[in-house]
Amino acid sequence: MGRLRARGLLLAVPALLIVLVPLLVDDRFVLKVLTFVGINALVVVGLALLFGYAGQVSLGHAGFMGLGAYTSAYVTVRLEWSWLAGIVAAALVAAVGGLLLALPSLRLRGHYLAMATLGFGEIMFIAFVEAEPLTGGVDGFTGIPYASVGAFEFGTPELNYWLVWATALLSVAVAYNVVRLRPGRAMRALHGSELGARACGVDIVRLKVQVFVLSAALAGIAGALYAHLVGFISPSIFTLHFSVILLAMTVLGGTSSIAGPVLAAALLTLLPYVDAILPGVPESVATFLSEWETDIYGLSIILVMLFAPGGVAGLLRRIGARRGRSSMEREAA
Amino acid sequence: MELSELLQFAVAGLKNGSVYALVALGFTIVFASTGIINFAQGEFYMLGGMLSVYALQALGLPIVLAVIAGVVGTTAAGVVFELGAIRPKRDGDPLALIIITIGGSILIQSLTRHALGPDEMPFPAFTPGPSVLVAGAAIERQTLWMWGLTAAAVVALTVLYRRTAFGRAMRACAIDRDGARLVGVDTRLMVTASFALAAMLGALAGVATTPLTQTAFNVGTRVGVKGFAAAILGGLGNPIGAVIGGVILGLLESMSVAFLSSTYKDAIALVVLLLVLFVRPQGVLGRREKEKV
Asked: Which of A34, A69, B67, B164 is most buried, with most CB under 10 Å away?
């Protein structure tokens, strides 16, 4: 019981801190960057379930984000439906796309899904450029309204920040429940031995497909939130490069963890803005970091896999285990 | 549509098909020796072209030497990648290895951009001259080079696999790694050799295409996906299947341009990939395998 309460506290404290940020930060730019952290975190929660629990990787989640963003933009601007309808449509379209991709790729053992998602992301990029009547082509889609419910509009940076982070924290809560309950146990069994899990009556294909569809839907929602936050979307945002960044966040965050990848998403998103967030860091450092961003991601993915496969989560667990051991030693003494 | 026009589309299809075949062979060779999909395969294609351009323009080498430098340099890069990033983790789980190749892919791409620049680069045709006319269809001389080099690579691979002790050791390693190790095959060397071969074949395709298409640091990804689709079509791990899969995919693409539209030509490969995975995952030529406990 005590452990459970400690765990609840462990979640409640960061959540409270996140909620309080807009009251402490009055720099609009920083607040916007922190809102982007929330959007990336939302996608990474889905990818963390997919990677850490179902043992699959995706190189196409920028494509799902784009799918959601364009869907919501079309529904709210061209069809003039409400924002809520746009978000729901974005989630549904992305989920259906995920289902069509996952069904053939996940029926087989091995990692065909990764390559299929890579191809999917490339094709979504081509589609965003070519399907001009729907997407606005290379010039992008402009004039997307702020999020609103009824007469209430999320018109300020603070309101948008809270909207995005409320969604992100909700997805974290959903993910924790997925992990703790039956599907999570089945997923962990799957990671240990696929054959063993199957022998225990786990329908692994169905489970993997469900996790993938959930992650695609979360990416679709994140894309829609982005579209309404910025008001403008274009194909150059939803590229393979962005998919790789999302994957890097997930991988650096570590396996079998939600908090690790979310933390990694925050760190990596803030990295190019380090001069704006930490006082005293010269601008040249930030310029260097954004110029060599991709090289750093590529190298760190390799290094983490070679030397610290647990990622950030593994590091946290190791620290936690040490503290647990030392308190036990104290009790024994 | 007239016959000569159709023939022209067939020539284009076979031209791209030879590229897909070489890239698919790279996927298949690495898959056979390691059991993983190498996401850096497309980058070997890119490196072949980019390094040759560098050797020609910056080092001032003649065309022949520049081509050889591009292929040799890429092969060396493949070996370095295997020794540095794959070998330390070789008996790790496939997911980790695949993620390492994804990291390697973006690292190679990004380092190339920093070292050689972000621009599109041209390379002269191996032998300049007018196109050859066959039954009303024009075939560029460079296309003949691509076919010739692909055929030569396939013949050389066949000789290597069937006639040499080294090739037989590679095949043994692909069939059963532990068994091969028991009879004295250096399986670690075979994995390194498979990466070297895959890099060499990818580079060959890359440098042979560059006179027709130009090259840049980011051309590898799309060719990688298509080469993989070709490898799946022919049955992953089957070299003959890889070549046939490449040719079929190239023809499918050019015929879709001929009869449908060119806008979504690049989507054909993914549709083929998903259809094959859904209907016949062992590939068109492959045999169904039973999974052992």
From this structure: A69
Beta-carbon separation of B103 and A109 below 8 A? no
Largest CA distance in chain A: 74
Flag if A247 and B102 touch (Cβ within 8 Å).
yes
Closest CA to B193 of B101, B287, B87, B57: B87
Contact A53/B at CB under 8 A: no
The helices-and-strands tally (H runs, E runs) of chain A is 16, 2
Q: What are phi and psi of B133, to 5 degrees?
A: -95, 125
Within 8 A by CB and 6+ apart from A39, the residues are A164, A168, A222, A225, A226, A229
User: For residue B31, what are its two tokens?
Assistant: 């898959």
Beta bridge partners of B215: B121
Record the pTM: 0.89
Chain segment A263-296, per-residue pLDDT in tens: 999 998 988 888 877 877 888 888 888 888 889 8
Strand partners, A149: A152
Residue pair A232/A140 in contact by the 8 Å Cβ criterion: yes
Amino acid at A162: W
Does A302 reach chain B within 8 Å, measured CB to CB? yes
Q: Which long-range contacts (CB under 8 A, 24 or more apart) does A191-197 make?
A: A191/A53, A191/A54, A191/A55, A191/A255, A191/A256, A194/A109, A195/B293
In this structure, what token pair is assigned to residue A243?
């998919």
Burial of A60 (0-12, 13-18, 19+ CB in 10 A): buried
Q: Is B292 helix (H, G, I), strand (E, B) or coil?
A: coil
For chain B, the structural domain boundaries read: 23-221
Q: Helices A83-106 and A112-130: crossing angle, nearest 10°?
A: 140
CB count within 10 Å of CB B214 equals 15
B201-248: pLDDT as tens digits:
999 999 999 999 999 999 999 999 999 999 999 888 888 999 999 999
